[in-house]
Design a protein that fits this description.
The protein has 133 residues and is an all-alpha fold. It has seven helices and no strands.
Length: 133
């Protein structure tokens, strides 16, 4: 009976690494994933996780389609208005914005994120670990 909790913990730990299940690998296009990941500001580490997830099921992942769509998604993520929202939510910025728009994004993100951190320091249950969306 003691092995059941251990087995459950191991299963949950292993499943936490996969970004996609088999059905998602078969039905969601890499372009759709790239657009969504770009819009949410994920770094390229996310592409590697998608590729690994689909490879477990013998499914090829179109990196070029993902990257092209991610670039489009980043256009909506990397705006000053969104920088303010991302900072207000306390989300970490993964350095994904192109150099030509990053300064404007960061000009809004940094003060909003700093304010979030300062507000949270008064919360006894707050822990300063990276937050994702």
């Amino acid at each position: 009976m003691k092995t059941l909790p251990l087995l459950l913990c191991c299963t949950l730990a292993l499943s936490g690494c996969a970004t996609l299940n088999e059905q998602e690998c078969r039905t969601i296009t890499p372009a759709q994933l790239g657009m969504k990941d770009g819009q949410q500001g994920y770094g390229l580490w996310r592409l590697d996780k998608h590729v690994e997830s689909c490879a477990r099921f013998g499914i090829d992942f179109d990196r070029a389609a993902y990257l092209a769509a991610r670039e489009q998604g980043l256009k909506s993520y990397c705006t000053p208005e969104n920088g303010d929202k991302v900072g207000e939510r306390g989300e970490d910025y993964e350095g994904v914005c192109p150099a030509d728009v990053e300064p404007a994004f960061l000009a809004k993100y940094r003060p909003a994120h700093r304010e979030y951190i300062n507000d949270m320091r008064g919360d006894p249950f707050w822990m300063p670990w990276p937050m994702r969306h």
